[in-house]
Description:
By secondary structure, the chain is of the alpha/beta class. The chain has a single domain (about 1-254), classed as Rossmann fold, CATH 3.40.50.300. About 35% of the residues lie in helices and about 30% in strands. It has ten helices and twelve strands. It has a six-stranded mixed beta sheet, sandwiched between helices. A four-stranded antiparallel beta sheet has the order 2-1-4-5, covered by helices on one side. A two-stranded antiparallel sheet has the order 11-12. Helix 5 crosses helix 6 (about 140-155).
Amino acid sequence: MTLLAADRLSYRLGDRPILDNLSFSIEAGDNIALLGANGAGKSTLLRLLLGLLKPDSGQVLLHGLPLPGLSRSSIARQMAYVPQSHVPSFPFSVAHIVAQGRLPATGLGHAPDSAYEDHVREALVELGIDHLRARPYTELSGGERQLVLIARAMVQRARLIILDEPVTGLDYGHQLRLLALLEQLAERGLGLLSSSHRPEQALASATRVLVLHEGRLIADGAPHDIIDSDLIRRLYQVDVKQIDAADHRFFIPC
Length: 254
């Protein structure tokens, strides 16, 4: 099932082209890593997919419907977003922040549905942060806040989750646990798109990789078919040695 499709998307900032004629789809069960160097257009693409920017040409389709024709509440019921960083104005508790994921279903000014407490608890436990539920969100570390935002997206119960560099600020253990969780969510039939600067993590957990380079989509396919030393050199202008061992691939500086 196609959850979201980008159809010939282009975007300019003044006279400068940022994205040029991008087309791809996100299917149920996809766990996609979006790779590209700084300035490749990843953040702009995410904002276009979320409907926060209007493309100069092309369109975004959510469940086959043009995004501009949908209300923000309708979009939020179908698509969740995990930003790279977020600090609210008030010291809400972690449980309160996570429960905000139910707002697209309940609406503002209405009592949450009866199942929301179970959803909040399940998400906090699954991410290993249930012990933080009563803590003020503003007092958490950057990595802890990132996990809370992912829990909020899970509570939202959308079929599609877009994540902006989700492992940023997480320690090594939380990185591995989060990557495993994303794999599990995709196996449950969700569609995931995560921007990343880390090719090794895309190789370890993604089912598919999109590669942006200078505003163009230059590759779309299985990570082990696409991510190699030649791609690393092209994207990041560094020479690396590629090591393949069993089903794993590593890169070390030359």
